[in-house]
Amino acid sequence: MCDVTEKEWNQKYLPFYNNFSKYMINYIIPDTIAFYLANSFSRNCLCDSSLYNHINSAKDVFNIKCDTNKLIPKISEILKIKYNLKIINNNPLRLNRYY
Question: Domain range holding 74?
């Protein structure tokens, strides 16, 4: 392993990691959390926690800082489009099928 200068870090590696984090936050994390919620719902495994708590529990595996409140609209949209589910209550979280 070689040493990286601060200049090289700032010009080369930091933009790479920032771009990777942005991609994860915009695409991977919302989709994965929507799957987590839909899978929990379909298997009757949702506990009586808030939507916020469920999201925070699921996103812990990514080790990427992101604003939970900004994820909610994306997750809600994915739940609707991919899983035909809507959030009918945030606290405790309740989901229902669209008819």
Answer: 6-97
Whether 70 maps to a domain, the answer reads yes
Query: How many domains does the chain contain in total?
Result: 1
Largest CA distance in the chain: 58
How many whole angstroms separate alpha carbon 43 and alpha carbon 90? 19
CA pair distance 96, 37, nearest whole angstrom: 11
CA dihedral 98, 70, 38, 93 (to 10 degrees): -80
Instruction: Identify whether 43 is part of a domain.
Output: yes
pTM: 0.89
Reported as a single tens digit per residue, the pLDDT across 24-68 is 999 999 999 999 999 999 999 999 999 999 999 999 999 899 999
Q: Enter the tokens of residue 58.
A: 């699921």
Work out the end-to-end distance of the chain between its first and last CA atoms, rounded to an integer number of angstroms. 57
Would you mind telling me the total number of residues written for the chain in this entry?
A: 99
